[in-house]
Task: structure prediction
Amino acid sequence: MYLGSVPQSVWRLNIDTPQEAQQNLSFGAADRWWEQTDLTKLLLSSNKLQSFSEDVKLLPSLVVLDIHDNQLSSLPDSIRDLEQLQKLILSHNKLTQLPSGLWRLTNLRCLHLQQNLIEQIPQDSGQLVNLDDLDLSNNHLMDIPESLANLKNLVTLNLSCNKLKSLPPAISEMKNLRMLDCSRNQIGSIPPVLAQMESLEQLYLRHNKLRFLPELHCCETLKELRCGNNQIEVLEADHLKHRSALSFLEL
Result:
């Protein structure tokens, strides 16, 4: 809708009495007041928002908040009050950093931050223990914190199109991770402990600086391994040992 700002009436949806309800009350139909319920989903994508109001805290029952494809450079710390939030879509903005309150949203299951200008993810990100989908692709990340290993429920992790030179060994502790995308970075080697990720099904390492194919001994469920556009010179039998589930290999 090309909105430059969110109308104040949106933030007050849970507070102000709807006009229809006011009319009903005036006619003595007070028993219909219970029909008003709190807002649980707010979709503001593809507008021209440059700022986001602190008043978002007036919508504490939100479960889904989608603000992707705007022009936001920051978020209010009051976002911490959205304790019921499960899905937060912030992709395609101009965010350079994130408020500390975001990492307190422990009910989050899906967090999309791709296509921003983020240079660092804090250690506090490890508090989002219920996340199962995290997208950090197309940012300016040079490393990722060890604390991400606390995200034991993570199923999908997208780190593609950043400036990563290595992966922390602790990433192997994500025992439920099925998809890991590290394409288009500057990674020169994969930590051997990555081989302990027993649930991994898709591993994307295209467009890096790998000289050897990673040995993934315990990844018996691996179905896709994409390592094109690297600097791999040798392929040995051990690299593909126990890869009976592999259906797609790109070199």
In short: The mean pLDDT is 91. DSSP finds two helices and ten strands in the chain.
